[in-house]
Amino acid sequence: MKTKAEYDAAVKGPGKFEGEPGWALYFWEHYLDGFNNGDDGTWLTFEVVDADRVIFPELKGILTVKLMESDDGFISTELD
Q: Which residues lie across from 64 on neighbouring strands?
């Protein structure tokens, strides 16, 4: 399992996750492994659980995160 620091480092600089938090890559990897709680055709929705908050304390109080991949392959995020 990667650490928060590894996820944060992986999203720095240009690329698919440019400008997004490390947890965006973390949840994207969950999606690639077949895990997400919803897909409305635009946004992928993930329920944030305590295990996620252990890695990413900044998600304290957040119930769900959403990821969207644009037509040019960049990821955007939204919190609920």
A: 47
| Matching residue, tokens 């999606």 | 31
- Closest to 43 measured CA to CA, from 80, 6, 78, 73: 78
DSSP secondary structure letter of residue 53: H
Partners of 77 in the β-ladder: 67
pLDDT band at 61 (very low <50, low <70, confident <90, very high): very high
**Residue type for 51, please?**
A
- pLDDT tens, 6-51? 999 999 989 999 999 999 999 999 999 999 999 999 999 999 999 9
- Nearest residue to 7 (alpha-carbon basis) of 64, 68, 59: 59
